[in-house]
Each structure stands twice: as C-alpha cells, then as structure tokens.
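REVIEWER CHECKLIST
Item 1: Sequence provided? yes
Item 2: Single chain? yes
Item 3: Sequence as submitted:
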Amino acid sequence: MKIHEYQAKELLSRYDVPVPRGSVAKTAREAGETADQISQRVVIKAQVHSGGRGKVGGIRIAETPAEAEQIARELLGTKLVTHQTGPEGLTINAVLVEEAVQAEKELYLGMLINTSAYAPMVIASEAGGMEIEEITTRNPAKILRQHFELVAGLLPYKARTLAYGVNLPTENIRPVTQVMAGMYRLFTEKDCSLVEINPLVTTTDGRLLALDAKINFDDNALSHHQDIVQLHDSSQEDPLEVEAGNTGVNYVKIGGNVGCLVNGAGLAMATMDMIKMVGGEPANFLDVGGGASEEQVAQALKILLADPNVKAAWINVFGGILRCDVVARAVVRVLEESKASVPFIVRMNGTNLQEAMRVLEESELNITFEADLVSAAEKAVAMAKLRLSKANDTSQ
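Item 4: Structure as written out by the authors:
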C-alpha cells in the first residue's frame, strides 16, 4: 500500500526524523493560509502516488501567499501525468505547502527488503535528488548498502559506515545515524516494504531535513495496522483494481487486449508469458486464488470485461481447491447477464472437469475449448487481433 508524501512525512516526524515546516491543503484558500503562516517562500507539491512530479510541473515555488493560493488553484482537481502514472495520469486532490529551503548537500536514504539476500537493507548515496534508478545507471559506485537483521536491528557501526561513506562532515554523522535509527523503527514497527527519503538535505542554515519521502507498506500486514489502513487513498488507484481488492481477488490492469482469468499467481504469470510469446499483449493479471467462490469468480469476470481494451478472454484454470465447475457456472452466468460479445477461450483441467465441460457446452455461448496451452494462447491472441482489426475498420 502506498501513501502520500505529506502522510509519509507525518509518520517520519513521529519517529524523530526532521521534516520541513508545512501542511497539506485541499483547497486553494488553505494553501494560501498555510503559506501565510510559514511567512517565507514556499514549495507547492502535488500529492499523487507518483515520482517525477517536478519534471511535469507538479512541484512549484511560490514567493507570496497569494501566489501559493493561485498555484494550488491551478493544480487541484487536475490530472498529473508522469512517466510512472501512464497517459491517464492521477488526480490531484491535495497539495503540500511547505517552507522552501536552501540545500547545501543532497543525500539518498532508503530501506527495503533485498529479496535476493532475504534480508532488509539500507541504501545510501551522496547522489541524492535523483531517482534511485537514475543513480544506479549513472553513478553505481555512489550507492552504498548495508544489510541488517530484524532482531539485532540496524547496528550503530553500520549506520556510521554509511554516513561516512556518503562523505558527510563530522558534525553531520550523528544526526544522520539518528535519522537512520528512526527510519529503522518505522520500517520494522509498521511493517513497511519501503521507507525512502530522497533527498535528505543539509541546509545552509545548518539543519538536516527529509525534503521528500516515500513509504510503502506490506499489504499482508495491514490487518495489524488499522492506523495505516486509514491512510489509504483509493482515488489514486485504478477503479477496477479497487473493486477487485474489495472482491478478494488479485487484479492488475496492464493495458493489452487479451484478458486473463487464472487461479494461482504462478499460472497467471505463465499465462501472460505465453500470450507474449505468441505475439499478443495481456490486458491484465487476474488471479482468483485457490478457494474462490462462484460469486467471486463472477465478480472477477465482470471486472475483466469492464476493461474496454479486452478483445478476447482466456480462462486458464487448474482445478484443485477451486473446482472447474464453479468457474464454468460463473462464466455462463456472467455471459448470459452481460450479453458480452467478447469471445472466450477456456482451458481447464482438474477437479470436476467433466461437469464443467457439460455446463459450458449446454450454454451454447461464444466459448472455444482448447486443452493445449500453446494453442489456447494462439487462439486467444488471434481472436483479439481479429476483433481489434474489425473495430479499427469500423472507426475508419
């Protein structure tokens, strides 16, 4: 789960990480009032779940409260399009108004799980201000890493090693290690998957501040952190993904034209890979899981069909706990109710396969059966391309 920058800074400040003075504003008037209280130049920062905001006008300087109000008015309610949001962009419902500071040195600090080493890790770099991907590409030697254990914690000598490694003056070593200690406590106590400060700056007036921050949380641990759940902003997510989460299935919209419904994440990945291998583009990742009910499968199918890009649907199910006949009845029910014209390719095996085949055959719906994995993928891709071609011809 992602949260906004202003929420991340509020959390960091609770863990003794210094942040600039400022406040979130959801109206232009609030932005002007906050700027007036700060009584100096301010930065107006669009609050969306995306990086790269400054490159597309999402971060702007205001010299006066009136200018802050005007900038907020221009931003609020509009969509910000970055390289991370895709062409549809994300709606700006709030802005962060905070003091503009003069940075003397910019650092990068991040904590995440290193899945290769099966351990949490701290990353530090003196090339702050750039996205970590840019640092990796341009200055890989500038990235320093230290692993730590959840039981022993981030040992002080490791924090000092990183602080010295980013070429900080002696007087900043202790404050930076204290920032790392606060990040560590937040990371472990709130079950974060990422805590990132970029940049962490030393200012010309001698302060150390988290100028920008990003925090993500492990979805599987949210049941233990209702205070974090309250920070969730569904307006920053695809409506279909939100609906899928409420239904209890895993859905991610990808953008292709072959819709997939699968049980099991591994099979879902293999299904998408196969679509790519035969020259198609998957429209989504949709895993209904092993124990889905008929109602959940039906809702998942409705979500799949709600994507206008889907020109063909491939049901690829290995029946175990989730029986094939449950999926078949859900497919028939949704197609009969929706009158969808999207062709369906069904590949099933496992528990109650014969019953499932009987249900689908007796429905006399637009369903193609294919037992072979490669052939099923080829048919799904061919049908999607054919319907897309016909749609393009009609529009011309």
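Item 5: Key structural point noted by reviewer: The longest helix spans residues 373-395.
Item 6: Recommendation: ____
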